[in-house]
């Protein structure tokens, strides 16, 4: 959904199709239609806002849903090493794990990037990564490369 919204305003059906296209299961919404489908997508948008800090709202002017706000902490995204980075990346990694488990193809790149940024920030700050967080990651297995999945089909 986020990648679709980054391209510009999206209709409701665009968001549903973005998830269906990106997911590895036949129908990530379990065949839901009508109000049930709307509720599931709204729940996804709520979790995206809560876990990732991305607020999606409808815009009449744009004629679709748009990203209204990004709750991004002021971080050193160039990897120069700020001690505040590691906890922020850990929070982001905790937030993305449920999405990555549910929709690995859609979130693999983002999850892997957050993991690498977290580990780099820990090294730069001279601290050990949280064992519990890394353990959760390893229990889930490494994210699959979406391009590799496409080649195997």
The percentage of residues in β strands lies in 5-15%
Radius of gyration: 17 Å
**How many E strands?**
2
String of helices and strands: HHHEEHHHH
Instruction: Give, in spatial order, the strands making up the sheet with the most strands.
Output: 1-2
Structural class: mainly alpha
The percent range for helix content is 55-70%
- Major β-sheet, in short? 2 strands, antiparallel
Q: Would you write up a description of this structure?
A:
- The protein has 153 residues and is mainly alpha-helical.
- The chain has two domains: 2-70, no CATH class; 85-152, no CATH class.
- Helix content is 60%, strand content 8%.
- The protein is built from seven helices and two strands, in the order H-H-H-E-E-H-H-H-H.
- It has helices at residues 2-6, 12-22, 34-52, 85-102, 104-125, 131-140, 146-152, and strands at 54-59, 64-70.
- A two-stranded antiparallel sheet has the order 1-2.
- A hairpin with a 4-residue loop joins strand 1 and strand 2 (64-70).
- Helix 4 (85-102) packs antiparallel against helix 5 (104-125).
- Residues 73-82 and 143-153 have low confidence and may be disordered.
């Amino acid at each position: 959904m986020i990648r679709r919204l980054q391209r510009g305003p999206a209709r409701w059906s665009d968001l549903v199709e973005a998830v269906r296209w990106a997911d590895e299961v036949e129908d990530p919404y379990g065949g839901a239609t009508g109000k049930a489908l709307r509720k599931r997508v709204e729940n996804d948008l709520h979790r995206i806002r809560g876990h990732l800090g991305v607020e999606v709202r409808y815009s009449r002017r744009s004629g679709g849903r748009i990203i209204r706000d990004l709750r991004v902490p002021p971080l050193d995204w160039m990897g120069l090493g700020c001690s505040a980075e590691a906890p922020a990346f850990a929070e982001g990694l905790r937030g993305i794990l449920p999405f990555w488990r549910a929709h690995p193809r859609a979130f693999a790149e983002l999850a892997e990037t957050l993991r690498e940024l977290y580990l780099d920030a820990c090294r730069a700050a001279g601290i050990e990564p949280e064992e519990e967080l890394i353990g959760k990651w390893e229990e889930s297995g490494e994210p699959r490369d979406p391009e590799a999945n496409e080649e195997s089909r």
